[in-house]
Amino acid sequence: MPDIVHKPVMAAEVLNALNPRPGGHYADGTIGGGGHAAIILAASSPTGWLFGCDRDGDGVDAAGARLAEFAGRFEIRRGNFADLADWVPAASCDGVLLDLGVSSRQLDCAERGFSFQHDGPLDMRMDTRQSLTAADLVNGASADELAKVFAELGGEGDARRLARALAHRREYQKFETTRQLADWIERISPRRGKKAHPATKIFQSLRIAVNDEIGSLKRGLDAAVKILKPGGRLAVISFHSLEDRVVKDFGRARSRDYTFAGELDVPELRESRVPDMKWVTRKAIKPGKAEIMENPRCRSAQLRVMERI
Ligand SMILES: C[S@@+](CC[C@H](N)C(=O)[O-])C[C@H]1O[C@@H](n2cnc3c(N)ncnc32)[C@H](O)[C@@H]1O
Fold this sequence. Notes:
- The chain is an alpha/beta fold.
- The protein has helices at 11-18, 35-43, 57-66, 104-108, 134-140, 143-154, 159-169, 178-188, 200-210, 213-227, 241-255, 289-294; strands at residues 25-28, 49-54, 74-78, 93-99, 228-238, 258-259, 271-272, 277-285, 302-308.
- The longest helix is centred in the C-terminal third of the chain and has 15 residues, at 213-227.
- The structure holds S-adenosylmethionine.
Protein backbone atom coordinates (compact mmCIF):
# COMPACT_ATOMS: atom_id res chain seq x y z
CA MET A 1 0.00 0.00 0.00
CA PRO A 2 1.47 3.42 -0.85
CA ASP A 3 2.36 5.36 2.25
CA ILE A 4 0.26 8.49 2.38
CA VAL A 5 1.96 10.98 4.68
CA HIS A 6 -0.76 12.51 6.86
CA LYS A 7 -0.25 15.80 8.59
CA PRO A 8 -0.40 15.23 12.34
CA VAL A 9 -3.44 16.62 14.15
CA MET A 10 -3.00 20.01 15.87
CA ALA A 11 0.72 20.06 15.03
CA ALA A 12 1.30 23.72 15.98
CA GLU A 13 -0.63 23.35 19.24
CA VAL A 14 1.33 20.20 20.19
CA LEU A 15 4.65 21.94 19.51
CA ASN A 16 3.52 24.91 21.53
CA ALA A 17 2.53 22.62 24.43
CA LEU A 18 5.70 20.49 24.49
CA ASN A 19 8.14 23.16 23.32
CA PRO A 20 10.74 20.61 22.11
CA ARG A 21 14.34 21.78 22.27
CA PRO A 22 17.81 20.36 21.58
CA GLY A 23 18.91 17.91 24.24
CA GLY A 24 15.33 17.32 25.43
CA HIS A 25 13.83 13.83 25.88
CA TYR A 26 10.31 13.14 24.65
CA ALA A 27 7.96 10.16 24.56
CA ASP A 28 5.26 9.59 21.95
CA GLY A 29 2.98 6.80 23.22
CA THR A 30 0.92 6.67 20.01
CA ILE A 31 3.59 7.01 17.35
CA GLY A 32 1.30 5.74 14.54
CA GLY A 33 2.63 7.02 11.22
CA GLY A 34 5.31 9.08 13.00
CA GLY A 35 3.79 12.46 12.13
CA HIS A 36 4.00 14.06 15.57
CA ALA A 37 7.27 12.26 16.30
CA ALA A 38 8.81 13.82 13.17
CA ILE A 39 7.88 17.36 14.16
CA ILE A 40 9.11 16.79 17.74
CA LEU A 41 12.44 15.41 16.47
CA ALA A 42 12.78 18.23 13.92
CA ALA A 43 12.05 20.88 16.55
CA SER A 44 14.54 19.34 19.00
CA SER A 45 17.35 18.97 16.42
CA PRO A 46 20.15 18.18 16.52
CA THR A 47 20.27 16.39 19.89
CA GLY A 48 16.68 15.82 21.07
CA TRP A 49 15.73 12.18 21.79
CA LEU A 50 12.40 10.41 21.34
CA PHE A 51 11.00 7.20 22.87
CA GLY A 52 8.05 5.99 20.82
CA CYS A 53 5.58 3.16 20.96
CA ASP A 54 2.43 1.89 19.30
CA ARG A 55 0.36 -1.25 19.79
CA ASP A 56 0.13 -1.61 16.05
CA GLY A 57 3.06 -3.33 14.31
CA ASP A 58 2.26 -1.58 11.00
CA GLY A 59 2.33 1.77 12.82
CA VAL A 60 5.73 0.97 14.32
CA ASP A 61 7.11 0.05 10.85
CA ALA A 62 5.59 3.16 9.27
CA ALA A 63 7.00 5.40 11.99
CA GLY A 64 10.45 3.81 11.65
CA ALA A 65 10.43 4.53 7.90
CA ARG A 66 9.14 8.05 8.30
CA LEU A 67 11.75 8.90 10.94
CA ALA A 68 14.74 7.51 9.00
CA GLU A 69 16.23 10.99 8.65
CA PHE A 70 16.46 11.18 12.47
CA ALA A 71 18.27 7.81 12.83
CA GLY A 72 20.22 7.54 16.08
CA ARG A 73 17.88 9.90 17.92
CA PHE A 74 14.94 7.63 18.77
CA GLU A 75 13.91 4.22 20.08
CA ILE A 76 10.59 2.72 19.03
CA ARG A 77 8.97 -0.35 20.58
CA ARG A 78 5.77 -2.15 19.79
CA GLY A 79 3.54 -2.07 22.84
CA ASN A 80 0.87 -0.38 24.90
CA PHE A 81 1.58 3.12 26.23
CA ALA A 82 0.21 1.82 29.54
CA ASP A 83 3.60 0.06 29.90
CA LEU A 84 5.79 3.08 29.00
CA ALA A 85 7.24 3.31 32.51
CA ASP A 86 8.56 -0.28 32.19
CA TRP A 87 11.19 0.78 29.67
CA VAL A 88 11.41 4.57 29.58
CA PRO A 89 13.58 5.73 32.52
CA ALA A 90 11.75 7.37 35.43
CA ALA A 91 11.75 11.20 35.49
CA SER A 92 13.62 11.34 32.18
CA CYS A 93 11.18 13.10 29.82
CA ASP A 94 10.59 16.76 29.10
CA GLY A 95 7.40 15.95 27.21
CA VAL A 96 4.96 13.08 26.67
CA LEU A 97 2.36 12.95 23.91
CA LEU A 98 -0.70 10.69 23.64
CA ASP A 99 -2.71 11.16 20.42
CA LEU A 100 -5.51 8.74 21.18
CA GLY A 101 -7.73 6.54 19.05
CA VAL A 102 -7.08 5.03 15.66
CA SER A 103 -5.05 6.38 12.77
CA SER A 104 -6.32 7.11 9.26
CA ARG A 105 -4.11 4.25 8.14
CA GLN A 106 -5.98 1.83 10.42
CA LEU A 107 -9.42 3.22 9.50
CA ASP A 108 -8.74 3.07 5.78
CA CYS A 109 -7.43 -0.50 5.81
CA ALA A 110 -10.46 -2.75 5.22
CA GLU A 111 -8.75 -5.89 6.58
CA ARG A 112 -8.34 -4.29 10.01
CA GLY A 113 -12.11 -4.09 10.38
CA PHE A 114 -12.28 -0.68 12.13
CA SER A 115 -14.66 1.00 9.73
CA PHE A 116 -18.01 0.19 8.18
CA GLN A 117 -17.09 2.39 5.20
CA HIS A 118 -15.10 -0.60 3.97
CA ASP A 119 -16.04 -4.27 4.06
CA GLY A 120 -13.63 -6.34 6.09
CA PRO A 121 -13.51 -8.90 8.90
CA LEU A 122 -14.98 -7.78 12.24
CA ASP A 123 -11.56 -7.47 13.82
CA MET A 124 -10.71 -4.00 15.31
CA ARG A 125 -7.58 -5.14 17.17
CA MET A 126 -4.92 -2.44 17.36
CA ASP A 127 -2.43 -5.13 18.37
CA THR A 128 -3.00 -8.14 16.12
CA ARG A 129 -1.10 -10.37 18.59
CA GLN A 130 -4.08 -10.09 20.93
CA SER A 131 -6.65 -12.87 20.53
CA LEU A 132 -9.95 -11.06 21.30
CA THR A 133 -11.56 -9.56 18.17
CA ALA A 134 -14.77 -7.61 17.62
CA ALA A 135 -16.31 -10.75 16.09
CA ASP A 136 -15.60 -12.64 19.34
CA LEU A 137 -17.46 -9.98 21.31
CA VAL A 138 -20.38 -9.63 18.92
CA ASN A 139 -20.88 -13.39 18.57
CA GLY A 140 -19.86 -14.47 22.05
CA ALA A 141 -20.72 -11.87 24.72
CA SER A 142 -24.08 -12.09 26.48
CA ALA A 143 -26.85 -9.64 25.51
CA ASP A 144 -26.39 -7.91 28.89
CA GLU A 145 -22.64 -7.51 28.35
CA LEU A 146 -23.21 -6.12 24.86
CA ALA A 147 -25.87 -3.68 26.06
CA LYS A 148 -23.39 -2.40 28.66
CA VAL A 149 -20.65 -1.97 26.02
CA PHE A 150 -23.00 -0.16 23.59
CA ALA A 151 -24.37 2.16 26.30
CA GLU A 152 -21.24 2.88 28.35
CA LEU A 153 -18.60 2.98 25.62
CA GLY A 154 -20.72 4.22 22.72
CA GLY A 155 -23.41 6.30 24.42
CA GLU A 156 -25.95 4.33 22.37
CA GLY A 157 -29.45 5.22 23.60
CA ASP A 158 -31.05 2.08 22.20
CA ALA A 159 -28.38 -0.25 23.60
CA ARG A 160 -30.61 -2.84 25.28
CA ARG A 161 -32.95 -3.36 22.32
CA LEU A 162 -30.05 -3.58 19.87
CA ALA A 163 -28.12 -6.03 22.05
CA ARG A 164 -31.15 -8.30 22.47
CA ALA A 165 -31.93 -8.23 18.74
CA LEU A 166 -28.29 -8.96 17.93
CA ALA A 167 -28.16 -11.91 20.34
CA HIS A 168 -31.29 -13.33 18.68
CA ARG A 169 -30.02 -12.81 15.14
CA ARG A 170 -26.61 -14.43 15.73
CA GLU A 171 -28.29 -17.67 16.77
CA TYR A 172 -29.00 -18.42 13.14
CA GLN A 173 -26.30 -16.34 11.45
CA LYS A 174 -23.05 -15.17 13.04
CA PHE A 175 -21.68 -11.72 12.25
CA GLU A 176 -18.42 -11.93 10.37
CA THR A 177 -17.88 -8.69 8.47
CA THR A 178 -18.13 -4.97 9.13
CA ARG A 179 -20.69 -4.36 6.38
CA GLN A 180 -22.85 -7.26 7.48
CA LEU A 181 -23.07 -5.76 10.99
CA ALA A 182 -23.50 -2.16 9.79
CA ASP A 183 -26.23 -3.10 7.26
CA TRP A 184 -28.08 -5.14 9.87
CA ILE A 185 -27.95 -2.23 12.36
CA GLU A 186 -29.23 0.13 9.66
CA ARG A 187 -32.13 -2.24 8.91
CA ILE A 188 -33.32 -2.46 12.49
CA SER A 189 -32.42 1.14 13.38
CA PRO A 190 -33.12 3.27 10.30
CA ARG A 191 -31.47 6.69 10.05
CA ARG A 192 -34.72 8.71 10.11
CA GLY A 193 -33.02 11.85 8.82
CA LYS A 194 -30.00 11.62 11.13
CA LYS A 195 -26.67 12.49 9.54
CA ALA A 196 -24.54 9.85 11.27
CA HIS A 197 -24.82 6.20 10.24
CA PRO A 198 -26.78 4.31 12.95
CA ALA A 199 -23.83 1.91 13.38
CA THR A 200 -21.39 4.69 14.36
CA LYS A 201 -21.80 4.41 18.13
CA ILE A 202 -21.88 0.61 18.09
CA PHE A 203 -18.63 0.47 16.11
CA GLN A 204 -16.98 2.98 18.46
CA SER A 205 -18.05 1.01 21.52
CA LEU A 206 -16.81 -2.31 20.11
CA ARG A 207 -13.42 -0.79 19.23
CA ILE A 208 -13.00 0.70 22.70
CA ALA A 209 -13.97 -2.61 24.33
CA VAL A 210 -11.79 -4.82 22.11
CA ASN A 211 -8.73 -2.68 22.82
CA ASP A 212 -9.56 -1.87 26.46
CA GLU A 213 -8.93 1.74 25.50
CA ILE A 214 -10.22 3.29 28.73
CA GLY A 215 -8.21 0.96 30.97
CA SER A 216 -5.08 1.58 28.87
CA LEU A 217 -5.60 5.34 28.99
CA LYS A 218 -5.89 5.37 32.80
CA ARG A 219 -2.69 3.31 33.13
CA GLY A 220 -0.95 5.34 30.42
CA LEU A 221 -1.62 8.63 32.22
CA ASP A 222 -0.15 7.20 35.42
CA ALA A 223 2.88 5.96 33.44
CA ALA A 224 3.34 9.47 31.97
CA VAL A 225 3.58 10.95 35.48
CA LYS A 226 6.36 8.46 36.30
CA ILE A 227 8.51 9.20 33.24
CA LEU A 228 8.12 13.00 33.24
CA LYS A 229 10.75 15.26 34.81
CA PRO A 230 9.51 18.04 37.09
CA GLY A 231 8.46 20.82 34.70
CA GLY A 232 7.90 18.27 31.87
CA ARG A 233 4.66 18.53 29.90
CA LEU A 234 1.95 15.98 29.14
CA ALA A 235 -0.18 16.62 26.03
CA VAL A 236 -3.19 14.41 25.35
CA ILE A 237 -5.38 14.60 22.24
CA SER A 238 -8.71 12.84 22.65
CA PHE A 239 -11.47 12.33 20.11
CA HIS A 240 -14.59 11.63 22.13
CA SER A 241 -16.09 12.66 25.43
CA LEU A 242 -15.43 9.36 27.17
CA GLU A 243 -11.65 9.68 26.69
CA ASP A 244 -11.72 13.37 27.46
CA ARG A 245 -13.52 12.70 30.75
CA VAL A 246 -10.79 10.26 31.81
CA VAL A 247 -8.14 12.92 31.03
CA LYS A 248 -10.08 15.62 32.91
CA ASP A 249 -10.64 13.38 35.95
CA PHE A 250 -6.95 12.45 35.96
CA GLY A 251 -5.90 16.13 35.80
CA ARG A 252 -8.30 17.06 38.58
CA ALA A 253 -7.21 14.23 40.88
CA ARG A 254 -3.48 14.76 40.27
CA SER A 255 -3.60 18.54 40.78
CA ARG A 256 -5.54 18.34 44.07
CA ASP A 257 -3.80 18.45 47.43
CA TYR A 258 -6.07 15.76 48.86
CA THR A 259 -7.61 12.40 47.96
CA PHE A 260 -10.78 10.73 49.05
CA ALA A 261 -11.78 7.08 49.11
CA GLY A 262 -14.93 6.08 47.23
CA GLU A 263 -17.13 8.01 44.83
CA LEU A 264 -18.06 11.03 46.92
CA ASP A 265 -15.79 13.85 48.05
CA VAL A 266 -16.77 14.22 51.71
CA PRO A 267 -14.57 17.00 53.26
CA GLU A 268 -14.30 15.19 56.63
CA LEU A 269 -12.90 12.08 54.92
CA ARG A 270 -10.22 13.79 52.83
CA GLU A 271 -6.59 12.75 53.14
CA SER A 272 -3.90 15.20 52.19
CA ARG A 273 -1.49 14.50 49.35
CA VAL A 274 1.16 16.43 47.44
CA PRO A 275 -0.12 17.32 43.95
CA ASP A 276 2.14 15.99 41.19
CA MET A 277 0.58 17.61 38.11
CA LYS A 278 -0.90 21.01 37.31
CA TRP A 279 -2.99 22.23 34.38
CA VAL A 280 -1.23 24.35 31.79
CA THR A 281 -4.53 25.28 30.19
CA ARG A 282 -7.65 24.30 32.05
CA LYS A 283 -9.82 24.47 28.94
CA ALA A 284 -9.40 21.98 26.10
CA ILE A 285 -7.69 23.37 23.00
CA LYS A 286 -9.57 22.66 19.74
CA PRO A 287 -8.29 22.59 16.16
CA GLY A 288 -8.70 25.78 14.16
CA LYS A 289 -11.22 26.19 11.32
CA ALA A 290 -8.55 25.95 8.61
CA GLU A 291 -7.33 22.58 9.94
CA ILE A 292 -10.88 21.22 10.18
CA MET A 293 -11.52 22.28 6.55
CA GLU A 294 -8.34 20.51 5.47
CA ASN A 295 -8.86 17.40 7.63
CA PRO A 296 -12.51 16.94 8.69
CA ARG A 297 -11.57 13.86 10.76
CA CYS A 298 -9.90 16.14 13.31
CA ARG A 299 -13.08 18.11 14.07
CA SER A 300 -13.72 16.31 17.36
CA ALA A 301 -10.09 16.53 18.59
CA GLN A 302 -9.43 18.13 21.98
CA LEU A 303 -5.97 18.79 23.38
CA ARG A 304 -5.34 19.03 27.13
CA VAL A 305 -1.97 19.98 28.55
CA MET A 306 -0.58 19.39 32.05
CA GLU A 307 2.78 19.91 33.67
CA ARG A 308 4.63 17.64 36.08
CA ILE A 309 5.33 19.33 39.39
C1 LIG B 1 -4.31 8.96 16.01
S1 LIG B 1 -3.10 7.74 15.75
C2 LIG B 1 -1.59 8.53 16.08
C3 LIG B 1 -0.98 9.23 14.90
C4 LIG B 1 0.37 9.83 15.18
N1 LIG B 1 0.31 10.81 16.26
C5 LIG B 1 0.95 10.47 13.95
O1 LIG B 1 1.17 11.68 13.95
O2 LIG B 1 1.20 9.76 12.97
C6 LIG B 1 -3.31 6.77 17.16
C7 LIG B 1 -2.32 5.60 17.26
O3 LIG B 1 -2.31 5.22 18.63
C8 LIG B 1 -2.19 3.82 18.70
N2 LIG B 1 -2.69 3.47 20.03
C9 LIG B 1 -3.94 3.65 20.51
N3 LIG B 1 -4.01 3.25 21.79
C10 LIG B 1 -2.75 2.83 22.12
C11 LIG B 1 -2.17 2.31 23.31
N4 LIG B 1 -2.89 2.11 24.42
N5 LIG B 1 -0.85 2.04 23.30
C12 LIG B 1 -0.09 2.23 22.20
N6 LIG B 1 -0.60 2.69 21.04
C13 LIG B 1 -1.91 2.99 21.00
C14 LIG B 1 -2.99 3.32 17.54
O4 LIG B 1 -2.56 2.03 17.17
C15 LIG B 1 -2.69 4.37 16.48
O5 LIG B 1 -1.59 3.98 15.67
